[in-house]
Inverse folding.
């Protein structure tokens, strides 16, 4: 595809975020406006990230997108909503600032390629990282500055939280047009260096209810969800913000567990009921409470999203012992050497007292592997042109 | 133990009841007063019953009790509360009615023996049948007539509902002394002859949180439970009463499932969370929804108490097909011939369409066996002296 005017390409990365005050339920399906505010921790991109390249060229004949090397439908409504929104912002910008450097023509079609460095099978909310990365990359491409909450949010609600490093709150807002439904940073990634995150990837049986369909049914059928959104979350959000600001781990941990449990309670109150937790998830919950009980302190917290995998929060001085407790309760089945991935965790002995306190029948293979990570920064621009997922021809590089 | 004055013994039976509007949480632990009203279906004693013999003799030196042939502590507070309450009523009665036949002296000690005709392993709420039977038997012994709600309730809250056949409501009441916290019959056992009940006994892993401890923790920690009790249950109770009175099976079935789910949701919202449902329970829930979906009508309902066993409600014209669906999804492991107990259910073929609709990976052995039963009457007096569980010496008969 020879062209006189070469394509313009930008590549960025964006992080996964894990909500500790959960988002579940929209008040506006089209604009993706939530029924309550939520608060999340941004995970480090060294372990979990999405990389996206966006390129424009006058030679492109249509918008196209590749996810993990496979072409997907670029006409899907949420992707188109993101593209419309970023082009609108770019238009505003070029009208407003005469001295700004020229941006690629908004009439050109765009090619997008996105890839995760973690297996989709991990069941992590990859759409949040994906749409945050897309919003950020397109903003770089078009020279758009300022709040990208709406661009990301139109792709996937929780994506707006992945625009920030550290700890982010997505304010539900009050306006019908959603202009005040935006994500803001509560504290940067350097704020709480001792905090550690473990993702326990659970062997799951089959495909689950999608969160989009699930939360819609919950809004329609669960009396408890409405009560939670209106009467419980506002105070919890304030309390969680305080816990993060003051680095109050015990408060943070207890509220994280309670809010995860309440989210899953509203799923169960949905009709027909939604169950994302399985027996292994419940064993992990039990393990955490026993571990904390043994220590007489809340040293570890769990949270679960729309799937059976646990995300564990703890502090650096507890990681090794808790990982040993997990290994004890869920002996690795085959990949003993790859059971622990990500940040190194030194082996630690388990005291006989703790083993007795855990009092669990070992469940071999219940956990496939662990990813150890920490709090991390927001989206990043990759300046190295080798990082592009699209080649000079605007198509995915073979390696991608 | 030779005695000039032989012992006076009475033997009665009482039924198990299954709540369709659930009781969970006390506002008074001592008096056992609930935070919401509940409604239950009384199961037939041909399949599930408790038999209790109570005997008094001036030769007895202490109150004693045997459960399923094993002596238990008669000093346990709840049992003593029942005894105090029935003796108080007997005292009132003897003071009030001069012409009443003489009752055994209230100063004599009592021996009690109780046995269930169903395995404790079935995980059915045997304490409700047990305390209802005890209250009823002691009332017969002392010639006490009238409402026994308080006697039974002091033993186990839901026991007061087992004092009635058919369908019973336990009104929470408003008084601090609990005098208006009583059970009443909504409809007799002859009211809805088509209604069938299947108990799916699930293979469980280990001992669960007791309901007494569980509901106390829920009251203390679950914001959703309080909301449920105050804002959700009153309207549901009225609606369930209407469904029963009008024999509206679809309304009854949907509300039964929703209320079971909401009860378990409040358990999950408890901290630490309580999980009574396991993966097999969830498979049963899924099976019921798929079965109903296939038929385009709510033909089957599930409800779960403080354990993983399912209680299924359906109508006589649907029992056979649903049992076949259960057999298909949970192939019996070893006891194929004893898989179905209780009322006979004719074998029925499963259509290929229904098999496809169920779309479940068979889980062999997940269900241990099924007890088929129906709605039944309240407590009964057994006139045959051979039915006594205590011999002339006031001790359990060897056979008991």
């Amino acid at each position: 595809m020879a062209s006189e005017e070469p394509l313009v390409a930008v590549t960025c990365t964006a992080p996964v975020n894990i909500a500790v005050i959960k988002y579940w339920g929209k008040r506006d399906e089209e604009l993706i406006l939530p029924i309550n505010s939520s608060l999340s921790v941004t995970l480090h991109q060294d372990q979990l990230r999405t990389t996206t390249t966006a390129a424009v060229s006058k030679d492109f004949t249509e918008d196209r997108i590749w996810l993990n090397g496979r072409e997907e439908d670029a006409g899907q409504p949420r992707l188109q909503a993101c593209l419309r929104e970023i082009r609108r912002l770019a238009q505003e910008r070029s009208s407003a600032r005469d001295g700004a450097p020229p941006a690629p023509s908004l009439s050109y079609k765009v090619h997008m390629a996105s890839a995760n460095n973690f297996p989709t099978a991990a069941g992590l909310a990859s759409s949040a990282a994906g749409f945050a990365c897309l919003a950020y990359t397109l903003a770089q491409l078009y020279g758009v500055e300022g709040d990208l909450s709406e661009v990301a949010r139109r792709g996937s609600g929780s994506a707006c939280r992945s625009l920030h490093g550290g700890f982010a709150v997505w304010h539900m807002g009050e306006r019908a047009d959603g202009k005040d439904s935006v994500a803001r940073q509560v504290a940067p990634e350097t704020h709480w260096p001792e905090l550690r995150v473990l993702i326990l990837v659970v062997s799951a049986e089959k495909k689950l209810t999608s969160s989009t369909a699930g939360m819609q049914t919950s809004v329609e059928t669960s009396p408890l969800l409405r009560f939670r959104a209106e009467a419980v979350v506002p105070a919890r959000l304030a309390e969680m913000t305080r816990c993060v600001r003051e680095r109050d781990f015990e408060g943070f941990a207890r509220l994280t567990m309670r809010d995860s449990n309440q989210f899953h309670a509203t799923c169960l109150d949905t009709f027909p009921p939604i169950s994302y937790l399985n027996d292994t998830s419940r064993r992990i919950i039990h393990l955490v409470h026993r571990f904390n009980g043994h220590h007489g302190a809340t040293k570890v917290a769990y949270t679960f999203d729309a799937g059976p995998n646990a995300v564990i929060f703890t502090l650096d001085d507890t990681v090794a012992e808790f990982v040993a407790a997990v290994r004890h309760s869920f002996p690795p089945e085959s990949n003993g050497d790859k059971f622990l991935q990500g940040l190194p965790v030194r082996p630690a002995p388990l005291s006989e007292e703790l083993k007795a306190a855990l009092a669990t029948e070992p469940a071999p293979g219940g956990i496939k592997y662990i990813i150890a990570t920490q709090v991390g920064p927001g989206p990043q621009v990759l300046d190295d042109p080798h990082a592009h997922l699209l080649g000079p021809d605007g198509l995915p590089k073979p390696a991608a």
